[in-house]
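Response to reviewer comment R2.3. The reviewers asked that we include at least one raw input/output pair. We reproduce the pair for Prepilin-type N-terminal cleavage/methylation domain-containing protein here without editing.
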Amino acid sequence: MTVEAHEVPGAPRGEAGFSLVEVMVSLGLVGTVMAAMSAYFVSAVTLTHGQGQREVAAQVATDAMEYVRTLPTADVGTRVRALPPRTLTVNGIAYTQRWTVCWQAVDGGACATVKPAAAAAAAMVRVTATVEWDQKDCPVNPTAPARRTCGQTTATLFSAATTEPIVEVV
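Raw output as returned:
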């Protein structure tokens, strides 16, 4: 009985196995496809991680605004200006909350960083909450080049009136 190198002994004729060359070619193709896919998966994991940090920052910014909304509206601008920055740590990442305030004039225009002397001069108080955190994928911080800082900002307007408006039903 004569057996060729790639035939399986006892198998019916035409049921030969794979040659070593065929196995090596198929392994090369699978390896090439897997290498291309691994780069995609690494990129997807990195993007998902960064998006998770941005989601946390948005929640921390919302938390900062909710805190401001608990303050009495009559002097919210003065109270917010006195707030020191707060740092919260979530999943090992430090997020820093900062607030800025300006008074918006009745006729529009630029926001004043100092409260106007006349109460009627400012109709609204604009409060901005900014959350910053360090991440390697963020832009370089111009004030601290060794740091790469990301930021999330949210703003809201409060009435500068000391009394609530009266709505009359006609």
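The chain has two helices and five strands. The longest strand covers residues 93-105. Further pairs are available on request from the corresponding author.
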